[in-house]
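quick q for whoever's on today - can somebody do inverse folding on this one?? i tried earlier but teh output was garbage lol. tokens:
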């Protein structure tokens, strides 16, 4: 652990503070709205970064200011702990994968503006970060924002003794889940076998599998796999279960429409991300041509894209990822826009880190929640990094349902051993 006392120099022209005697000398931009400030400490170790700030000198309405942000990270997972001036704390998480890079973005580009702001106005906090870092409109900044957002929601739930779903207009309870396969290297027969086992063991009545190759330019994972797996899964599971597929940006519009007709002939009801996700016109061609639902949006983190997607009805089902888009507060904006347009929201939640719990709370609260919760069925062979994250399993499935409890905040305890 590297701990140091910092000498500070205020550069009035650029509103920056120079930090010296830190592991790497750097400049931290200061949000002008904060006023008088003092940096308390910057602590660095390979697994943990802390940026802590105290505020003074502002008068006005009572606030509960954010005073401390900590990240605990490896390459795959980054948990965020937020602390307010009353000592209340909460846990959040940035999106998995390259999470250690996102942690640096959080400390460099989010913390300087978020610290000192009111934890009861998360939207204002996130918009301030967005506006001050307008030169960086992409995914990493939104992922970092999401870590702060979700930590503050947990903090607020714990402070009020309520689950997050109750804070955003919902109630605890059950959420129907679909068993979501992440694998393409699995044979159709093996995929059908494990779906059948999960159906018997946990009562799942909805399943999603993969077709095509990820961003595959019309190629299959191996020749003929899609044409084999679609009818085989239906035959093996029978007519009752709902079946969904994910193309992961594989197809051109013409090929996607061809595959979509195969899906419709076999009773598949949901075709996710058939074309390159950034080509909205291509996806809309598929949506307009097929009778089954086309879904998408997991990769999108810009509100302008969401407004366009909803206005033009690019897809039938919207799939924001809470960790990709920048947290619960920004996801709620999309859900409200979708509700006004009469579109359902079935968020992307592709692993058993905290993103699935975030999604469960959201689905218990929004009026236009889709039919299911995405629930990953992959274990240590695919996601070794998701093992041992929590003190107990927060994701039991009974009769095909996950459950949001009435525990305060997210209702999950991060494992001290992992930290």
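ok took a stab at it. sequence:
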């Amino acid at each position: 652990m590297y701990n140091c006392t910092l000498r500070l120099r205020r550069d009035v022209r650029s509103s920056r503070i120079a930090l010296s005697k830190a592991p790497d000398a750097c400049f931290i931009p200061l949000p002008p709205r904060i006023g008088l400030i003092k940096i308390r400490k910057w602590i660095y170790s390979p697994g943990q970064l802390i940026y802590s700030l105290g505020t003074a000198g502002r008068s006005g309405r009572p606030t509960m200011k954010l005073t401390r942000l900590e990240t605990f990270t490896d390459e795959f997972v980054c948990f965020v702990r937020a602390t307010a001036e009353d000592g209340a704390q909460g846990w959040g998480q940035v999106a998995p994968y390259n999470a250690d890079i996102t942690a640096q973005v959080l400390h460099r580009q989010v913390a300087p503006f978020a610290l000192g702001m009111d934890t009861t106005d998360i939207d204002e906090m996130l918009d301030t970060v967005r506006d001050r870092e307008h030169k960086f409109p992409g995914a990493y900044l939104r992922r970092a924002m999401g870590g702060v957002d979700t930590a503050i929601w947990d903090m607020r739930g714990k402070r009020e003794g309520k689950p997050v779903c109750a804070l955003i207009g919902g109630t605890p309870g059950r959420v129907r889940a679909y068993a979501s396969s992440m694998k393409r290297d699995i044979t159709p027969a093996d995929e059908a076998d494990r779906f059948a086992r999960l159906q018997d063991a946990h009562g799942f009545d909805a399943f999603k599998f993969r077709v095509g190759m990820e961003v595959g330019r019309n190629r299959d994972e191996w020749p003929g796999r899609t044409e084999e797996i679609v009818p085989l899964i239906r035959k093996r599971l029978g007519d009752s279960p709902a079946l969904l597929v994910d193309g992961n940006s594989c197809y051109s519009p013409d090929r996607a429409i061809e595959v979509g007709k195969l899906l419709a002939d076999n009773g598949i009801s949901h075709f996710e991300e058939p074309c390159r996700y950034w080509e909205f016109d291509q996806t809309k061609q598929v949506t307009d041509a097929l009778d089954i639902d086309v879904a998408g949006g997991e990769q999108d983190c810009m509100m302008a894209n969401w407004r366009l997607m909803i206005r033009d009805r690019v897809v039938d089902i919207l799939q924001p990822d809470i960790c990709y888009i920048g947290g619960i507060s920004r996801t709620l904006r999309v859900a409200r826009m979708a509700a006004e347009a009469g579109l359902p929201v079935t968020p992307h939640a592709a692993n058993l880190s905290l993103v699935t719990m975030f999604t469960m709370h959201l689905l218990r609260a929004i009026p236009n929640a889709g039919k299911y919760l995405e629930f990953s069925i992959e274990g240590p062979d695919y996601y070794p990094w998701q093992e041992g994250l929590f003190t107990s399993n927060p994701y039991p499935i009974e009769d095909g349902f996950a459950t949001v409890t009435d525990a305060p905040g997210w209702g999950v305890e991060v494992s001290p051993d992992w930290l």
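fwiw The CA atoms of residues 218 and 251 lie 5 Å apart. also Residues 139-160 form the longest helix (22 residues). so keep that in mind when u check it
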